[in-house]
Amino acid sequence: MKTLKIFLCSFLLVHIFIILVINFNGFKYFDSPDYSSSLNNFGQRIVKNSDNYLPSKEVKNYFRTYATYLGVERGYSFFSPNVSNSSIELLFVDNNGTKLEIPFNSSESELKFTTADSYLESYLLGNDEVRDRILKSFSRWLFSYNPDISSIKIYLKLSHYENIESDKIIEEHMKEEVFFGFTVERNKLKQL
Amino acid sequence: MIQKINKFLFEQTNFLDKIRLTKIIAIFCIINLIVIAPDMYEIYGNKGLISPDLNSYFLSWYQPVLSWITDVFVNLGLSQNFSLLLVFFIYLVSLISIVLGKNRVFFSIVAWIIHLMMVNSSYMFSYGADYFISLVLFINVFISISTVLKGELSITIYSFFIRFLQVHMCLVYFFAGFGKILGTDWFDGNALWLVLSAHAPSTINYLTPLLSFPIIFKVLSWSVFFEQLVYPIMIYVPRVRKHMLITTIVLHIFIAIFMNFYTFAGIMILLNYVAFGHYLHNGKSFVIKPLKRKFYKTSRAT
Questions:
Q1: Among A56, A81, A163, B191, which is disulfide-ready with B185 (CB 3.0 to 4.6 Å)?
Q2: Partner A contacted by B39 (CB < 8 A)
Q3: Is A73 at the interface with chain B, CB within 8 A?
């Protein structure tokens, strides 16, 4: 029994350490132009020094293996350090000008799709390869669901929300803009 | 000191009934499965919205995916979609078996692994709620093991894994609060307004009149991160812990109502209930007990 208890105690300590590393590692992402301007003084100090608390990359990779099996691999800084004042939604339009919908049967599935949208948002400018893979994957599904269409135009709907202290907030709390993004020919992704 | 740690981690017997907990966890997962099942081919299928090629970009080789099982069925001559349906059926049967108490340990392991595969197979579609479901199913494996063990070993395992979850929940809330105090939005009330604008646009028209009183948004934003930051301490203070648990559950109910994050709110309430639910039955409260006493005194007097 004593050995089991020692093992369990060690397991708990390792778990706590891994969660601390994962979450402090997450703060490193706040050290980017998108976030750094909106960090407060305390935030800037923590983010700048977050690297000092972290072990090497190799050690972190071992932690990731453990974390993926327990479902604890993503940090817990929800809606932090600030809340985005914009969001992106994908709109699909076929060659006849008809808007294509993805017919989800539950609000949970729609929420999951919003999560996928947010991935696209993070890869939209920084990583063309991933962006193209995501768009190709969505388009492939839309082509198979709509066998009669020959091309899909993808628009990006950007919603911008006014800050609470903005003078315009009473008249217009949200502004929407739609940008034409890409055209996808059947089985062929073509960036415009 | 060692004795105190030993008692804290391994000798607690006042937690909720373990069999009831395994049943509640399994029922929650069955409801979650029913909600996503109609779209399972779009979310998890090989020809779904996320192609396996794209999904694999985000994964490492050691992360189990559904195709590890479906490929076996496909090689036996079954179609891809039917194979996926079969895996979902195995998951459902496992959860039902946990509820019915048939081979609880075996089926809790099966349910945990299949759910892990579901999360990995739809990496881009998976969000916080899915990861917390994986965690609760992992804890469920050990709660189930403790149900078949006897005597001190059973108490040791059950007590430890409930404490493990408690510590984990403290870390979750601490970092949720800590992340918020690094920025500016949660201090000036902007965060709450932006969250509602993005996730609950239908409520904005009702909330617009409140913009003349920004202090309301400020107080509510502060109360969110304050609640999260003090959770790890207050949840262990005997006089306030029940109150803390109830306000945390209320916070998640508001998240469900205003942000439509039903599964996320549900799993967080479930995790709180599994970890600290015994407070609701035998905890001390500085508000409820005095009120009860006052009520009894008044009823006696009348």
A1: B191
A2: yes
A3: yes
A96 to chain B, closest Cα gap in Å:
22
**Domain annotation covers residue A113:** yes
The verdict on residue A186 lying in a domain is: yes
Examine residue A92 and state whether it is found in any structural domain, yes or no: yes
Q: Among A42, A70, A98, where does a domain finish?
A: A70
Q: Are residues A94 and A129 in the same domain?
A: yes
Q: Which of A63, A76, A154 is the best mutation test for B, with the most CBs of B within 10 A?
A: A76
Residues B84 and B10 sit within 8 Å (Cβ to Cβ):
no
**pTM score of the predicted model:** 0.90
Burial B7-39, CB ≥16 within 10 A → b, else e:
eebbebeebbebeebbbbbbebbbebbebbbeb
If asked whether residues A121 and A178 sit together in one domain, one would say yes
Same domain, A100 and A185: yes
Is B145 an 8 Å CB contact of chain A?
no
Q: CB A27 to CB B152 under 8 A?
A: no
This complex has an ipTM of: 0.89
Q: What is the DSSP string of A164-182?
A: TT-GGGTT-SEEEEEEEEE
Nearest CA in chain B to A68: B63
Report the gap between the CA of A42 and the closest CA in chain B (Å). Answer: 6
Does some domain include residue A134?
A: yes
B252 and chain A in contact, CB less than 8 A? no
Tens digits of pLDDT across chain A (192 residues): 889 999 999 999 999 999 999 998 888 888 877 666 788 999 988 888 877 777 777 777 788 889 999 988 888 988 888 888 888 888 999 988 999 988 888 889 988 888 877 777 777 766 778 888 888 888 889 998 998 898 999 898 888 888 887 766 666 677 888 888 888 888 665 443
Please report the pLDDT score of residue B112 as a whole number. Answer: 97
Cis peptide before A81 (omega within 30 of 0): yes
Q: Summarize pLDDT for B13-71 with one digit per residue, the tens.
A: 789 999 999 999 999 999 999 999 999 999 999 889 988 888 998 888 999 999 999 99
* A33 and A93 belong to one structural domain: no
Q: How many domains are contained in chain A?
A: 2
Tell how strand A174-185 and strand A99-100 pair up.
unpaired
Q: Name the residue among A76, A79, A137 with its Cβ closest to that of B54.
A: A137
Please indicate, yes or no, whether residues A141 and A184 belong to a single structural domain of this protein: yes
Q: How far away is chain B from the Cα of A170, in angstroms, using its nearest Cα?
A: 7
